[in-house]
Design a protein that fits this description.
The protein has 293 residues and is α/β, with parallel strands linked by helices. It has two domains: 84 residues, Rossmann fold, CATH 3.40.50.10860; 135 residues, 3-Layer(aba) Sandwich (Rossmann fold), CATH 3.40.50.720. Helices cover 39% and strands 17% of the residues. It contains ten helices and eleven strands. The strands form three sheets. A six-stranded parallel beta sheet has the order 1-11-8-7-5-6. A three-stranded parallel beta sheet has the order 3-2-4. Strand 9 and strand 10 form a beta hairpin. The longest helix is centred in the first third of the chain and has 21 residues. It starts with a strand and ends in a 5-residue tail after the last helix.
């Protein structure tokens, strides 16, 4: 069993990005600029955005954090999105989700200029990527594919089971792994809460991507020897032995499943860090105008 080390891979990717930024500056081009909009004071969102700001510094990007209280109106938020769309210095920006219930996440997402949509959530990017055209790939699926590439895990002709059908992870990663090229050319099965044969499907899988949001869902009796397991779950569970009073737990029963795996991602230290660094990769693409000149 080999651990897929998201921490080491993300550090390597950030070094590569930083070197490319230095090259851009040496050529007289502008420093890529990422803006994050944070609404309210959700603890998870606060930590995640703070991590993104640190990542920007590591990569040599300019970053700006814009805060609104959770009673901000939808109209005010849309006006800020429009302002950033028009700002030539801003290469990419994100609106951190979730948003307060009185604001339509879909309306905000669709208001973002798809050429600055470094989260990869805009329907134009989702559609282009699903057709195999250039577009911003949403961060978690991009991070999963980066790990597969860095560890040279074979995907062609393999049976991949994706557990979960979210628009953010399940659907796009399934689509990407079906496409021609590497990582891709896989036979992909998507199972979800209404599937009645999840265990049987998992037992036939060469690669399992677990993105259900249910801690410890995938157990040893659901996997075969030599399987590759990618755990996307990051649920906070209470813990008496940590300073914060909680710990992150994945969707995989790691202690039970790991001995049967050829490769497995830990939680934390796996996909989560790659999600953040994929946003940095998208920001670099936006800064270079690589996808949408």
């Amino acid at each position: 069993m080999q651990l897929i080390d998201g921490k080491a891979v993300s550090a390597a990717v950030k070094e590569e990005i930083a070197a490319e930024v230095q090259q851009l500056l040496a050529e007289g081009r502008k420093r890529p600029h990422l803006v994050a909009i944070l609404v309210g004071h959700d603890g998870g969102s606060e930590a995640y955005v703070a991590g993104k700001v640190r990542d920007c510094a590591d990569c040599g990007f300019k970053s700006t954090l814009i805060r609104f209280d959770d009673d901000v109106t939808e109209e005010t938020l849309l006006a800020e999105v429009n302002r950033l769309n028009q700002d030539a210095d801003v290469d990419g920006f994100i609106v951190q989700l979730p948003l307060p219930r009185h604001i339509s996440e879909q309306k905000i997402t669709e208001a973002i200029d798809y050429r600055k949509d470094v989260d990869g959530f805009h329907p134009v990017n989702v559609g282009r990527v699903s057709l195999g055209l250039p577009g911003f790939v949403s961060a978690t699926p991009a991070g999963i594919l980066e790990l597969i590439k860095r560890y040279q895990i074979e995907t062609a002709g393999k049976h991949v089971v994706v557990i979960g059908r979210s628009n953010i992870v399940g659907k796009p990663v399934a689509n990407l792994l079906m496409q021609k090229g590497y990582p891709g050319n896989a036979s992909v099965t998507v199972v979800h809460s209404y599937s009645n044969d999840i265990r049987a499907q998992c037992l036939s899988a060469d690669i399992i991507i677990c993105a259900l949001g249910k801690p410890g869902f995938l157990t040893a009796d659901m996997v075969r020897e030599g399987v590759v397991v990618i755990d996307v779950g990051t649920t906070r569970v209470p813990a008496n032995d940590t300073k914060s009073g909680f710990r992150l737990k994945g969707d995989v029963d790691f202690n039970g499943v790991a001995p049967k795996c050829s490769y497995i991602t830990p939680v934390p230290g796996g996909v989560g860090l790659m999600t953040r660094v994929s946003l940095m990769q998208n920001t670099l693409l936006a800064g270079k105008k690589s996808l949408y000149p």
